[in-house]
Amino acid sequence: SITRRPEGTAGVMRAVIEHGLDRGQLPVKLYYSGPFFRAERPQAGRYRQFYQVGIEAIGTQDAALDAEVIAIADAGFKAIGLKKYRLEITSLGDSASRAKHRVELVKFIEKLNLDEVTRTRAGINPLRLFDDKRDEIKSQMVDAPLLLDFLSADSLKDFEQVQKHLTALNVDYIINPRMVRGLDYYTGTTFEFV
User: What is this structure's pTM?
Assistant: First the structure.
């Protein structure tokens, strides 16, 4: 059996727990870089081997820390001369926000004209329909309820603070309310550079 690392976050979290870093001064700030490997069949633009650079800030929920992580990535892109990119941000809220949104999203999806495979996938994770690239699904999802409209007061305040910090750090961004993640460990502020 040969195991190759699929991404960096899991290894970082394992090291934090194994070495008790989460029981010391928080937050713990770490970084990693190197080659990683996908097991699934290669797709256009997605190779089996790829390179990833990542930073993790572990142990506290803090809007300023979220903004710091994003600003470091933005500064890195600028330092290597990238110009034609955009930063998209959203909030996935807390568990209460996601639970309220899921109820309404499932009701909405039940009324859509979906093939059996897509309906089954939506039953497992209805958010994934926001990621679907097919025009017929995109057009049906135009009026879907958005998670940002269901944020709890605390989640909304946190997301607004992230935006204020990014503005103060001169980091340009756009809000993408349709950005989703397939894994449950994503909470709060989520971002992508495109």
Answer: 0.85
How far is residue 54's CA from residue 61's CA, in Å, rounded to a whole number?
18
What SS3 state is found at 26?
coil
CA-to-CA dists, residue 174 to 38, 108, 136, 144, angstroms = 30, 26, 25, 20
The C-alpha atoms of residue 66 and residue 69 are separated, in whole angstroms, by: 5
Place of tokens 């081997």: 49
Torsions phi, psi for 101 (to 5 deg): -65, -45
Q: How far is CA 71 from CA 67, 82, 117, 169, in A?
A: 6, 14, 39, 7
The per-residue pLDDT for range 52-89, each reduced to its tens digit, is 999 999 988 899 999 999 999 999 999 999 999 999 99
Who's near 95: CB < 8 A, 6+ residues apart?
187
pLDDT attached to residue 47: 83
What the block records as the tokens of 126 is: 């209805």
Helix (H, G, I), strand (E, B) or coil at 164: helix
Q: How far apart are CA 67 and CA 73, in angstroms?
A: 10
168 three-class SS:
helix
Compute CA distances 105 → 108, 145, 148, 161, 176, whole Å.
5, 6, 12, 27, 17
Q: What is the DSSP string of 101-115?
A: HHHHHHHHHHTS---
